[in-house]
């Protein structure tokens, strides 16, 4: 199957190597199965006895529906009534059922987006209706236009874009800038004898092979841990160097450890320093591996997940630190395809962050979203690619 693609730009089920895909059709897949265009077996296409849908301008309809998805769903998707009434709760999926895998996005009234832990996220109301009803995009657009009271014959007004003055470049806090630079300069490489706690930690996570591979990780043998404004102790810490899209060192990520390689017995074992200016971490990442000239880059949330992707899938992968960091990630120049290795969270936060990043990047480059295959284990909040890597490593397979 190498080199073959499924219809519509989807990636084939047994293809795990990085590759280019259609930039205008981002692929969402759980494990190796493309999910963007597969109908659910329990969902019949709702065609009714309607004539072919009239044509509407997508921008007009999206603008008309923004903030009004509650009204739209009340008419076109009444099965979402309970989810709309309690949007912060989890509900049975309206497509496949279950108990609590479905919820609406936090901004659902504006976007119409939702997520199911099994079916994946839908980035806006049009995608949601296509999923629920089996409609294609033109039909979903026409139905929403009708509910919104748009007339397809009305001419669009000419709107001239306002002249925008770019904001001034942020001024870095020199004290923070000096502190993070000093911490990084004084930390030792992972092959140093004093870095043994970090090596033990990575080995315990199944990542011993990754230790010499990343120049973006170091060890501070005696990192100060602060809690509630006071010094609460000193611990070995794995230090990740956080760099923004312009290549500036904007902060450090710390994982506090015990000497035996376990997480330190503190309230928050993983902490970020303050950024060198407000919003410094937006678009930034721990650039664990250099680009390899292929134009392909992986991105995920955590350091450990990124290391597992590098080992299991063979592509350079960077850690965006958190779900919000993933959503705001900005690839550097030269990247032509981004593979998003998303966490599968019960809360839907990982899937939602991946969807937001897809929407930001899809018109600029090829984008593929990888969701871990399988179900979230009982008693766990999430399933990530480090879990899959360790499962597959026992069978001698790559992810």
From TrEMBL:
Residues 88-126 form the DNA primase/helicase Gp4 N-terminal Bacteriophage T7-like domain. The keyword Transferase applies. One of its GO terms (biological process) is DNA replication, synthesis of primer. InterPro entries: DNA_primase_Znf_CHC2, DUF7146, Phage_T7_Gp4_N, TOPRIM_dom. Pfam families: DUF7146, Toprim_3, Zn_Ribbon_Prim. GO terms for cellular component: DNA-directed RNA polymerase complex; primosome complex. GO terms for molecular function: DNA binding; helicase activity; nucleotidyltransferase activity; zinc ion binding. Keywords: DNA replication, DNA-directed RNA polymerase, Nucleotidyltransferase, Primosome, Transcription, Transferase. It comes from the Bacteria. Residues 1-55 are annotated as: Disordered. This is Putative phage P4 alpha zinc-binding domain-containing protein. It comes from Magnetofaba australis IT-1.
